[in-house]
Please model this.
Amino acid sequence: MVSEQSDTTGGDTAPLALKILVAGGFGVGKTTMVGAVSEIKPLRTEELLSAAGQTVDDTDGVDQKVTTTVAMDFGRITIRSGLSLYLFGTPGQDRFWFLWDELSQGALGAVVLADTRRLEDCFPAVDYFEHRHIPFVVAVNCFVGSRTYGAQDVSRALDLDSGTPVVLCDARDRASGKEVLIRLVEYAGRMHTARLLDSVG
Amino acid sequence: MTEDMTGTPREPGSQWYDSEAGPLVRPYAMTGGRTKPGPTGVRFDLIALVTLDPAAPGTDGMALGPEHRALLGLCRTETQSVAELSAGADLPVGVVRVLLGDLLELGCVTVSRPVPPAQLPDERILREVIEGLRAL
Model:
């Protein structure tokens, strides 16, 4: 990252922020996971729905209401002074896809949270990241009382590209969330290196 | 994700309007109706980092609104991302972007550009991130 002032000389001095998305169906535990690993209480930011959303946002019969807000929860992990990781929970509803485009711009990667009781809820997120070649891991949130499946079962059920990591996790648990993020960053690094090799070869 | 705000307790004396009415001040009233940052036309990423410019002129004589000053106040403590500023000032991201555009043009702040997707951080930084996460 380069600041407005220092151009190519930035190096270690320019503060660097990385972005990781946490996606998945409604109520799967996105905000819970962000909160579990974040050093700050998850913050909420709002985006006003603009013209881009009005075509899909049914505003019939809602007199006067010209804007709708979409909330995004996010947290932060400071790796060291000048290097921090931001985690964004993606808006759950499908009609806010246009916000995903902005969120995923420059993202290091994504965590797709899945619930084995309704695995289909995470299909859209899996498709989204696969099509855009954004590195992602599938984290299966092991809800109490739900049947446990192996990572391979989930991988097969989601028809994931080979190599896409599947991690079993507990979104409420900090250590578990950390492990998911570590797997993602490792995977993103491998993907990135592979792409660099492709581009020179 | 979106929470129903109707359940929030009202402050005494505020009963004369309900949440259905929306905010009392329309968000873009704070930007003078502008929805895009000024002539520079930059679009700040959610994780673009905003720092007070140490060489900035004093802001006392400037025609800044209270929201501009609130943003500057937030940056005074530490470097803030656009998302944090939005949450901290309780303003929609779109509004924060416009106000930041003003502050950038006035030379009050510097804003880091987002990482282009093709230039994701090198291996050294990723390793640093992994080690940092392990050490948490």
About this structure: The longest strand of chain B covers residues 49-52. The interface with chain A takes residues 1-3, 22, 27, 35, 45-49, 51, 79, 81, 83-84, 86-88, 92-95, 104, 110-117, 120-121, 123, 125-130, 132-134, 136 of chain B (CB under 8 Å).
